[in-house]
Task: structure prediction
Amino acid sequence: MTSKLRSSIPLLTLALVASVALLHCSDDTPAGRASASERGGVSCDVDGSARAETSTAADAAAPVADPIAQYATQLIDEGRKTFRHDTFGDEAFWGDTLKLHRAINGTAKGGVGAGVSPKTALGVGLKVDSDALPASVIDLLKQGKVDLDSVETTLTLLQANAVVGLTGVFDAKKTLVSMGIQCSLCHSTVDDSLAPGIGRRLDGWANRDLDIGKIIELSPDLSAVTSLLGVADATVRTVLKGWGPGHFNAQLFLDGKALGPDGGAAEAAALIPPAFGLAGVNLATYTGFGSTTYWNAFVANLEMHGKGTFVDARLADASQFPVAAAAGFANVRSVPDLITSKLPALQVYQLAIPAPAPPMGSFDVTAAARGKTAFEGPARCASCHVAPLFTEPGWNMHSGMEIGIDTFQSDRSPEKRYRTAPLRGLWTHQKGGFYHDGRFATLADVLNHYDRTLSLGLTDAQKKDVVEYLKSL
Ligand code: HEC
Ligand code: HEC
Result:
């Protein structure tokens, strides 16, 4: 009796704190976000909705057994591990086939080329997880005593499992013999708390520094890619080097389209999107290939080359997807299947990652409040970007014409449409530009585009206010 009573007190307190925070939230809307951290982790958006920031899986574990909460916690824990560390057996591709580990080793260690130093690795946007580093290495890093030009240091980092999204496979003699990649390679970054590129993981944040093309191009043997696409090695290398930081052409392996309408490789390669704030969002990807779990299965099987099962009859259409149809991507069955059993937890984890609130002082609170009014009124943004999802609840797809852009990328997807981008956490991916290919360098450019295309007749002041509002989401 007594223990039951005692255990219910913190819960009650929590509930009270939360409801006070919620009230607070709707009271002072625009100022809400900026002072969010002062209110016990419940943040407010300019639109008045609340978001829990600091609640962790542990907080959710209530003393009274709730099978649903327990299951959710278990899925989040498993999903996080999968997202951060699972290669799904893809080292058979990135190591054994592409032989990227040989490029990391360099000739000095029986591989090829100069080898990959930490400086080179950080230079192509790879990130180092400071939580995985031994205390001794952290001390040396702080004293500037770690040799960032030495391949040996890279190997030490890989052994500590500290390179975000990369797993090194070592033999008994501690020689790097293969390597694999994870979701976190592209969809996590770090907070730079120790040094640029070195810090604590930020899952779901798009790594817009990552030059995926340059990393793949380090491979001494691209024959798997050249034979899939039916083009010469030199051509593949030129295309890979043309993507640039933050870009990846996932559809290349379906339709073989390496170059965009203007002949550039970068514009055919989408920007890595954030993988947070997706709960409630119907279709995933810029062109709405399917749900989050659809795309998780797609990527793990077809892009990462993990070993699993993937079925999508739409990819058997040789007129739209010649490469996928020829390669049999419409029906992939690997034995053993290292992916399917991980999809439930991966999906729950993905959907559980909140869009992070913008830091205090990163936007003008008063202008953002005016911007909200314009966003919902004369700028007509809310007709598609519906708060608090900032995409349509329901069918969230539009033709290129509706948003005033070409159909090159939408034509590469089964729906032949663009998905209304959920705008939460926009402040985390200001690098690389906006829209699927980064065609608009700044948010001001996005506003000018809509103003022209939709003949909105916005004043410069209104456009500026909407930009501040976008930065507050
Ligand atoms: C090589 C980099 C890379 C890796 C690895 C990667 N992704 Fe992605 N991801 C992308 C890119 C690029 C897109 C955008 C694709 C598009 O829309 O055409 C994307 C899109 C997504 C989306 C859609 C986001 C939205 O806004 O709808 C989700 C969800 C996602 N990825 C999850 C994952 C998961 C889970 C994994 C691991 C199984 C993974 N990704 C591995 C680069 C990557
Ligand atoms: C007809 C529906 C529609 C309307 C109206 C609309 N948008 Fe969009 N918005 C979209 C779609 C679809 C995309 C995705 C485009 C792409 O990925 O290429 C998008 C993308 C964006 C992006 C880029 C997000 C990113 O991650 O790069 C921003 C910012 C944006 N919209 C802001 C606005 C603002 C501000 C308005 C009002 C002036 C507005 N939108 C009006 C449908 C719409």
Summary: Residues 286, 379-381, 383-385, 398, 402-403, 418-421, 423, 434-436, 443, 446-447, 450, 466, 470 surround heme C (ligand 2) (CB under 6 Å). The chain has three domains: 2-73, 81-249, 365-472. The radius of gyration is 23 Å.
